[in-house]
Amino acid sequence: MRLWPQLPAPSPPPANPAHAIPAHAIPAHANPAHAVPRRDRKGALLPVKALYLTIALLPSAIAQPDPAIARGDKLFAQGCSVGYCHGAGGSAARSPRLRGRAFDRDYLIKVIRNGIPNTAMPAWGDRLTDADIGDLAGYIQSLATAPINVAAGPSTDGPAAPAIEKPIDIPAEFQNGRDLFFDLTRETRCSVCHRLNGFGTAAGPDITKSAAIKVTDGPQVLRFGRPRGVRTIVLKNGERFAGATIERNASLTHVYDLNSNPPVLRHLQNTDIQSIQRQTNWRHRSVVRGYTVEDLQSIWNYVRFIAAKK
């Protein structure tokens, strides 16, 4: 006995079979075979129309990542998420946490382009395009609702940290050289590139191991010495910069960007690098011009003292 009229099923609309949801994924309550007959007030069965369900997922309905934010993420990993700046994914490191904080877009663009004077935040306006800066700002804004804590990923893993050194007591005659080496009032102080006596950033070589350490004329060495480890990094997007302390693995190149002050440790995808060339333009005198001859001699005497103690 038929309990309710059997209506013919309508023809399904054309759909791409690759986008159709399989039958087992349809909830039981949406399946006509499980429809519960309804009754009127007298208990008589009411006719129920057959349910035909066809669901097609269009590609446009699937959430796609914003390409601008994805580019900003990549740029952030290359130049901002470094050992002594912001942490992975905008987490806290030596620079402030960006995750879980709301920023005005215009403010972010201004800071990225111009930097913040007398801080470790460099200006990127001479190396990034307006589009790059905009993508970076968009990415940072996207972190406003992100969890505060995030584990560092391989894209931001930098070179191994330098070994911990036991500080050496400095005699009074070398204190001035030490103070000049680490002078926080100078943007181009020696310690932003060189690590000495357990302090500073190892962007440049260990100057206590230099063959020139035997030379007593410090100003001559510090002004006109040609750093052998500096290279020109050429990226496929046309960017060029002087880089030092290069470490490479199968996928990444870690290099200090000497066009920034202080130098920024960048993590570059090897596929983004056009070439690494021997540097011919960068000179050490460009970063010591703020020191007098007497200052440079005091610094050199301090460096030679530390070298003799090793």
Write structural notes for this entry:
The chain is an alpha+beta fold and 310 residues long. It has four domains: 17-59, no CATH class; 67-150, Cytochrome Bc1 Complex, Chain D, domain 2 (Orthogonal Bundle), CATH 1.10.760.10; 172-226 and 285-309, Cytochrome c-like domain (Cytochrome Bc1 Complex, Chain D, domain 2, Orthogonal Bundle), CATH 1.10.760; 231-278, SH3 type barrels. 23% of the residues lie in helices and 13% in strands. It has seven helices and nine strands, in the order E-E-H-H-H-H-E-E-H-E-E-E-E-E-H-H. It has helices spanning 67-79, 105-114, 130-142, 175-181, 218-224, 285-288, 293-309; strands at residues 38-39, 45-46, 195-196, 199-200, 231-235, 240-248, 252-257, 264-269, 273-278. Strands 8-7-6-5-9 form a five-stranded antiparallel sheet. The protein has a two-stranded antiparallel ribbon with strand order 1-2. Strands 3-4 form a two-stranded antiparallel ribbon. The longest helix has 17 residues, at 293-309. 25% of the residues are buried. The model is unreliable at 1-10, 13-35, 48-62 and 152-158 (pLDDT under 50).
